[in-house]
Amino acid sequence: MPRSVNSVASRERRKKVLKRTRGYWGAAGNVWTVAKNIHEKGLTYAYRDRKQKKRNFRSLWIQRINAGVREHGLSYSQFMDLVHKKGVELNRKTLADLAMNHPAAFKAVVDSLKK
In Å, how far from its chain's centre is CA 59? Predict the structure, then answer.
């Protein structure tokens, strides 16, 4: 009995990977064995960086809040201590947006916490 290999499905799988690696440098875009490895590594990076994106944005928000709060004579840690003690329901993303794009509103928040 002859061997059945289903070359149609195999070709489709390869075409799918090669389509996703189109434009990569050198053989990574058109040689199947290289493209397969590069594609798998890219998926690994994508999974990892979806997690890192959250860390990076939190770090950015903290830096922006710190810069905005220092203009009003506080440090980031002092400010966040006041936020928690007063029970302000604004997260870091919102506070960073206020500090950067709406300084008057941010100043009002800081002044209300200082009282």
Answer: 11
At the top level of CATH, the class of 7-114 is mainly alpha
Mean pLDDT per 10-residue segment, the chain (115 residues): 90 96 95 97 98 98 98 96 94 97 97 92
Instruction: Specify the length of the chain in residues.
Output: 115
Q: Where are the domains of the chain?
A: 7-114
Alpha helices, DSSP H only, in the chain? 7-20, 32-70, 76-86, 92-101, 103-114
Helix (H, G, I), strand (E, B) or coil at 25: coil
Q: How far is CA 82 from CA 12, 13, 53, 63, 93, in A?
A: 59, 56, 27, 17, 17
Write the CA distances from 23 to 43, 47, 50, 115, integer angstroms.
16, 21, 23, 58
